[in-house]
Design goal:
- There is one protein chain.
- By secondary structure, the protein is of the alpha+beta class.
- The chain is built from one helix and four strands.
- Strand 1 and strand 2 (10-13) form a beta hairpin.
- It starts with a strand and ends in a 7-residue tail after the last strand.
- The structure holds zinc ion (ZN).
């Protein structure tokens, strides 16, 4: 399952459910959109397990 943090824009994969962001530790987690999942999959291929989207940056 891929998740995105509404607070800081962190994208990450976790098995099972998660209640807070591993980056900012806030509980504003939502399932990632298909577009975000596609982006993260590309990063995973490059060996990067997560992505921090900078504020104001578009997908
Ligand atoms: Zn966060």
């Amino acid at each position: 399952m891929t998740y995105a943090c509404e607070d800081c824009g962190f994208l990450f994969c976790r098995v099972g459910s998660i209640k807070e962001c591993p980056f900012c530790e806030k509980p504003n987690i939502r399932p990632a959109t298909e577009e975000e999942i596609g982006m993260l999959e590309k990063l995973l291929e490059q060996g990067k397990p997560s992505l921090k989207i900078k504020e104001g940056e578009t997908l």
